[in-house]
Amino acid sequence: MKIIQRIALALVIIGAINWGLIGLFQFDLVASLFGGQDSGLARLIYTLVGISGLVCLTLLFAPMDEEAERTEDIQGSRNLNYSTEFGDEPDIVGSNIKDENDK
């Protein structure tokens, strides 16, 4: 299902760019590439972008907990160590004081 969602997201981005071009410059990129708005290929692209928008609705309503769990799984597999340098060192100050008293 991830592959379908990624393809759908790519098509939605293409549609968003096309709408941005229409809004800013009154230029329909899909129509100009595929022979006008009435051509069969342009209508197919418009249809695929619309269906992709519906598929991306599932991403909008996906539970946030699953996303957080996936992030934790990825970070857990890296074995990240965020400890400080002070917690792992032996107490050198205490041993130096004992050595000076022994002299």
Description:
With 103 residues, the chain is mainly alpha-helical. The protein is 74% helix and 0% strand. It contains 5 helices and no strands. The protein has helices at 2-25, 29-34, 40-60, 64-77, 92-102.
Features:
mainly alpha; 5 helices; 0% strand
Would you summarize the structure shown here?
The chain is mainly α and 103 residues long. It has five helices and no strands.
Rounded to the nearest angstrom, the radius of gyration is 29 Å
Structural class: mainly alpha
Strand segment count: 0
Please write the string of helix (H) and strand (E) elements. Answer: HHHHH
Distance between the termini: 74 Å
Q: Which regions have little confidence, pLDDT < 50, spanning 5+ residues? A: none
Query: What about the largest sheet?
Result: none
- Work out the strand percent: under 5%
